[in-house]
Amino acid sequence: MTADRSGKRPRYEGRPAASGAPSDSGEFAAGVGERIRQCRQELGWTQAELAASADISPNYVARLERGELGPSLFVASQIAAALGVPLETLTTPQTAARRTTTRRKGA
Fold it and tell me: pTM higher than 0.85 for the full model?
């Protein structure tokens, strides 16, 4: 990377993602954060309760859930253990929800 005229280095935009993979780490972090929030809410826990159980700060949990940053593998495993879910539940991108349709009688 070289500096531009202002002396600042250009922002790193990341490598292009492989097909089917999130386009950048921001999308991955947002997805992980959303899954953390879903699992936490299913248990009826507050962010503070999850933080205490996973031995991390409540502010860190909030930033993870907002997708501002992604967890390290170590932290992700602590959170998964605290939530009682496999690590893959948090880190694997979810596919679109399947629609279930019901047929009307006589149709």
Answer: no
